[in-house]
Every structure is written in structure tokens, then in C-alpha cells.
Amino acid sequence: MTITRRKVVQGGAAVAAATAVPWRLGGAQADDLIRRTIPSSGEAIVALGVGTNRYGVGDSAEARVPLRESLAAFHALGGQLIDTSEEYGSSEIVLGELIDELGLADELFLATKVRRLGRAEGSRIVERSFERLKKNTLDLIQVHDLIDFETQIETLRELKAEGRIRYTGMTTAGDEHPVEFERLMRTDTVDFVQLSYSIDDRRAAARLLPLAADRGMAVLVNRALGRGNLFRAIGNQPLPEWAAEFDCTSWSQFLLKYVISHPAVTCAIPGMRQARHVEDNMAAVRGRLPDAAMRTRMEQHFDSII
Ligand SMILES: NC(=O)c1ccc[n+]([C@@H]2O[C@H](COP(=O)([O-])OP(=O)(O)OC[C@H]3O[C@@H](n4cnc5c(N)ncnc54)[C@H](OP(=O)(O)O)[C@@H]3O)[C@@H](O)[C@H]2O)c1
After folding, report:
1. Integer angstrom CA distances of residue 180 from 89, 103, 192, 202, 268
2. CB-defined site of ligand 1, < 6 Å
3. For 5-305, CATH number?
4. pTM for this one?
5. Residue range 277-301, pLDDT digits in tens
6. How many helices (H) and strands (E) does the chain have?
7. How far, in Å, is the centroid of ligand 1 from the Cα of 225?
8. Extents of the domains making up the chain
9. How distant, in Å, are the alpha carbons of 92, 139, 213 from that of 264?
């Protein structure tokens, strides 16, 4: 299926039509996108999502414009998974309203998180997430940073049994609680784990990524671009010519193809608040991916230039 701008505008109704969308779609073929299978269900999802921890811009119409364009571009280029959290300021509110305006409520894979203490407070906040995202059902809710894990995961399991969410998960980032995260991965059962992994932070490859594969858990990767710091580290260094061997034309695609090509990774969720970044990054889920030998070459090259 070829995705056209006309289709986006139709789906986005009046608001999208009124928005000057400064990106070109270039006839992306949704069928050609790289997908990964969620082990617990067999469902395939596109291997690049969008992280929205900086979408909390409140009700500023001006600040929402680039976010609306980014979401429209993301969907038009075949993207599915959006990751947010009740804890990201007004992010859930902004997302719920933009998704509604764009007419995408039934088109996306929505993932949020709960980061609260206690059953009553956790349940209240989860219900608020359904309201903010304007959905009766959500695809995934994760226990954010393992906060009150035992309590919150019970609530999430009940919601899954009731059919209100499809998947459960838990998250961590950086070097926070790796021992506890690994222990829970070994002893508990969740559909998704979310962790940090990038070419400059390969720690997850030692234990957590192989463990996720062994335990049949899908993996969402946060901070795949090192919070954007990797671009500053790379500076003006040229992209190596051999990046063309895995259909890579930008440093961002280089960094994302490195992450996505790890066999245990299901979906990378880079933060993207600009449509030109979405367009660049969605090319990472097209064409060839680096094999194991190429991944080693990428690591060596990256280490040599920073
Ligand atoms: N504990 C947790 O559960 C946890 C912790 C951290 C993060 N997360 C999740 O992971 C997501 C991603 O993390 P993150 O946003 O902190 O870090 P990140 O994805 O590593 O980096 C995002 C940064 O990269 C920039 N960028 C994206 N594409 C680019 C491109 N093609 N060229 C140049 N710059 C580009 C973005 O700019 P623009 O925004 O201007 O486009 C943004 O500044 C979060 O949004 C959140 O959903 C979860």
C-alpha cells in the first residue's frame, strides 16, 4: 500500500488540512517496512516508534504545531508505536488531543506508563491515562522505572484480563536499577521490557537483551540516540561510505539501524519533535540492516571518531 499525503490529510480532517506540512513522503511503501514480532502474541509491529517525553507543551497552539506535523509524518510513513507516560507533564493530554485532531485514534499502537505508589493511586492514574489518551483500550501500559512494581503490575494484569490493555511492561533507563530489573525479568512475566541501548551505551547487550530473547519478552529501546548527545559527539564527521551497504544515508539512521539490528530488539523509540527528524529516522526501518560483522565495524568506527 502506498501512503500518500492525500491520505494523511483526509485522515487528519480539518486540522491536518490547515497545517502546512513541510515534509515530502516520497511514496513510502508500508509493506516494505522492517517489522518485529512481539513474542507473547506473534503480532508484528514496525521496528521504529516515537518517544514523547518532551511532548508536554501544554495548551500552547504554537508549540503543538511541530508535534502535530511530526505525528502526521510518523503515521504517513507507516509508524505505529507511540510511547508516553503519565509522568511526562502534559504529554498524554497533548498526544490525546493531537491524535484525535489527526483522526488517528484507531491507527496507532499506544504505550504509556504508571509511576505511582499504592494500588488506589496507581489505578486512579491509569484511569486518567485512558481519559487523557481518549481511548477505552490501550495497547501497552508499563510500570515506569519499576516504581512500586509488585502493586502496579497486579493492576495491569487485571486490566489485561479485562481486555482493557493488550500488553504489560516495565521500564528502566540508563544505569538505574540493573540488578532489580534483571531479577524481575527472570522471576516475573511481562510482555514488554523497555531499556536504554545505543552504540555508545552497549551494556544491555551483555545480559538484558539476551535474557529478553530467552524469556520471550518484547524490547522497546529508549535513548537510542543518547538523548541527542550523540549528534554533538559526532559533530561534522562524515558518514562512512560503507554505510551505503546497509542502505543508510544519515548518522541518525546509522545509530538507529545499529539498535534495531540487534536480534532481541523489537522497536526503538527515539524522541522526535520535528517532522524532518521523523522522515530521516523512518528510513532506518527500510532497506537492509547491518549483520553481526557490520555491527562490529560500526562499533569500532564509532569508538574511533568520538
Ligand atoms: N525510564 C523510562 O521509562 C524512560 C527514560 C528515558 C526515555 N524514555 C522514553 O524513550 C524516549 C526517547 O528518549 P529521549 O528522547 O530522552 O532520547 P533519544 O531518543 O536518544 O534522543 C532524542 C533527541 O534526538 C533528537 N533527534 C531525533 N532524531 C534526530 C535526527 N534524525 N537528527 C538529529 N536529531 C534527532 C531529538 O530531537 P527533536 O526532539 O528535536 O526531534 C531529541 O533531541 C522518550 O521520549 C521516552 O518515551 C523512557
Report:
1. 27, 40, 16, 19, 22
2. 51-54, 83, 144-145, 171-173, 194, 222-228, 231, 252, 269-274, 277, 280-281
3. 3.20.20.100
4. 0.93
5. 999 999 999 999 999 999 999 999 9
6. 11, 10
7. 6
8. 5-305
9. 28, 20, 5
